[in-house]
Amino acid sequence: MQLPSPASLNSTTALKCLHLRMLLLLIFSATTSFSGEIVKYLPGYDGELPFKLETGYISVNESELFYYFIESQGNPEEDPLILWLTGGPGCSSFNGLIYEIGPLEFDIDNYTGGLPRFKDYPYAWTKTGSFIFLDSPVGTGFSYSTNSDAWASSDSFAAKQAYEFLRKWLTDNPKYLSLELFIGGDSYSGIIVPLITKLVLEGNEAGTQPIMNLIGYLVGSPWTDQVISENSRVVFAHRMALISDELYEDLKVYCNESYVNIDPSNTKCIAAYEIYKKCVKDLYDNNILEPKCTSASPEKDQGELPHRALQENPTNFILSPPKIPDLWCRNFNYALSYMWMNNDQVQDALHIRKGFVSDWKRCNKSLSYTKDVQSVIDIHRYLSTKRLQVLVDGGDRDMVVPFVATVKWIKMLNLTVVNDWRPWFVDGQVAGFTVKYSEHGYRLTYATVKGGGHTAPAYRRRECYEKFDRWIHWYPL
Q: For residue 348, with 0-12 CB atoms within 10 Å meaning exposed, 13-18 middle and 19 or more buried, which class applies?
């Protein structure tokens, strides 16, 4: 049906016609998949972007999932395609793009106020691969829902949505179908990435279109099993000399090496665990080598240390200056993302639909989200029966998901070691350690990143780029 133009009608009818047009536009935008729009210029960056950036929304289950697509700066016709998710759950993929693996970073060293500015980052993963940075689940970044009931999500639902997003995106962009496809992510996405990978395999086996050229997956500092991750923190604390041998032995004996849901009647275990918590409470879990920046309004048990400022709450950030010699916290850098993303000019440049996300957050901690998958070890075990290339890595100073936890669940897969534990190098220096497993065509490379935290690319960008570049092009680390 073709509507008459408002100019040909009287004012009342014209107004009704205009409202109908707006309603149809809203319905159309809520139900139609869009292939995105090219972004050539960004506020805070001088000149035209030296890479192809596309942003857009894909409609999935009454939700609009927002993405940033950066085409490979190397050989886009042959380099692999990677769907990338950031953890949380609820952390925007912009975090991975700017702070971890993308071609830009904030120029924090020269920041003096106003809209943050960018500088090029030479060791971006996009130099050797095309990346779809997806804001998932709903409520993350600029992703939103047109139905109030559809804001709720879960591990399993988020994975299904991401899979449907990928199907629609590839349908809209068929020229990328022939490329090698990898599913990737870090932190809490360690739960979601294997689930998506399994869905892609099952979809291909069922003949669901489009057939995807899935080659493998990669997870960094991956949350994989709740119990293993939490129990491993005590082991990590002992290995890093954060607790004494005597306390570690007490914890093992009294708690039976289990520190999740401690029996309240087990007083000896509780007492030992309280001592452990006091030993580590002033450490920065993301990287034990960096200063801990706690809240400007400290919690009750931090009352004796009111000068330790700044858990991530942008309203409490000390923004000027953001970097003080000998007194710097990583959160200062994170503050710049809030300032940049909530700028109207920035949102116009990114083609953001106004009125759906009133306040962009780097990590949205108020999601309506159910963690319905406590472990994906069985998913990894299933995937190990397929011919897949897998990269698992993590910083060796990460206490959120300690390397101890990652090593433990990998060993539970009972894979065969084909290249034993050894150092890997960047510029002649040890960048970490690696071991490679293989089983019936399934090849898993595990690597630590020396000095890296949670997640490793945020702390060792150059080393992590070299690691990714070698692995994605089938070279040993």
A: exposed
Catalytic-labelled residue, pool 187, 221, 229, 337: 187
- At which residue do the structure tokens 């034993």 appear? 420
Query: What average pLDDT does range 233-239 have in this prediction?
Result: 98
Q: Is 344 a catalytic residue?
A: no
Interval 79-94 mean pLDDT: 97
**Minimum mean pLDDT range among 22-26, 138-142, 233-237:** 22-26
Is 454 catalytic? The answer is: yes
Q: Quick one: CA dihedral 183, 188, 191, 196, positive or negative?
A: negative
Q: Please provide residue 145's backbone torsions phi and psi, each rounded to the nearest 5 degrees.
A: -125, 150
SS3 assignment for the chain? CCCCCHHHCCHHHHHHHHHHHHHHHHHHHHHCCCCCEEECCCCCCCCCCCCCEEEEEEEECCEEEEEEEECCCCCCCCCCEEEEECCCCCECHHHHHHHHHCCEEECHHHCCCCCCCEEECCCCHHHCCEEEEECCCCCCCCCEECCHHHHCEEHHHHHHHHHHHHHHHHHHCHHHCCCCEEEEEECCHHHHHHHHHHHHHHHHHCCCCCCCCEEEEEEECCCCEHHHHHHHHHHHHHHCCCCCHHHHHHHHHHHCCCCCCCCCCCHHHHHHHHHHHHHHCCCCCCCCCCCCCCCCCCCHHHCCCCCCCCCCCHHHCCCCCCCECCECCHHHHHHHHHHHHCCHHHHHHCCCCCCCCCCCCCECCCCCEECCCCECHHHHHHHCCCCCEEEEEEECCCCCCCHHHHHHHHHCCCCEEEEEEEEEEECCEEEEEEEEEEECCEEEEEEEECCCCCCHHHCCHHHHHHHHHHHHCCCCC
| Residue 321: strand pairing partners | none
Task: Taking residues 373-394, report their average pLDDT.
Answer: 98
Tell me: the pLDDT tens digits for 214-223?
999 999 999 9
Cis upstream peptide for 264 (omega within 30°): no
Q: Tens of pLDDT along 2-17? A: 444 334 444 444 444 4
pLDDT digits (tens, 9 = 90+) for 338-359: 999 999 999 999 999 999 998 9
What pLDDT is recorded for position 331?
83
Full-prediction pTM beyond 0.90?
A: no
pLDDT at residue 179 greater than cutoff 60: yes
Rounded to whole angstroms, the Cα distance separating 288 from 282 reads: 9
